[in-house]
Fold this protein.
Amino acid sequence: MDELSELYQQVILDHNKDPRNFGILNDATHIAHGHNPLCGDKVDIYLKIQDGKIDDVRFNGSGCAISKASSSIMTTILKGKTIEEAKELFEKFHKAVTSDLDDNLDIIDLGKLAVFCGVREFPARIKCASLPWHTMMNALESKEVVTTTE
């Protein structure tokens, strides 16, 4: 688990310093806004969906390193996925960050998302990591409410 913890820190720092897919997607077909009032994270998720697939995805906003890294990794993974695949990824991610530490998760099946298993040790940080994902789900479902983690 120490190796996973070290990898977690490296990946978080890398994606915070150099976030992938950061910015506004002007031709987005689906948009949602998220806010974590506990720590002030704000994220906007932009999806361009055509023929049931996510052709492009971007995020914009401000927040802590965990929130920004989660948004960045999420966007890299979602490109080219179907809506159903995106929903399945959400479920895997949610399980990874909220399950008990003693649960045997198949972290190999999680791919890049495995680095977020470490947030389970810090309940307040679960909300930081999951805000972009919940916001993405609201974008997929065209919900016009602001996503919160409360």
The domain at 2-141 is CATH 3.90.1010.10 (Sufe protein. Chain: A).
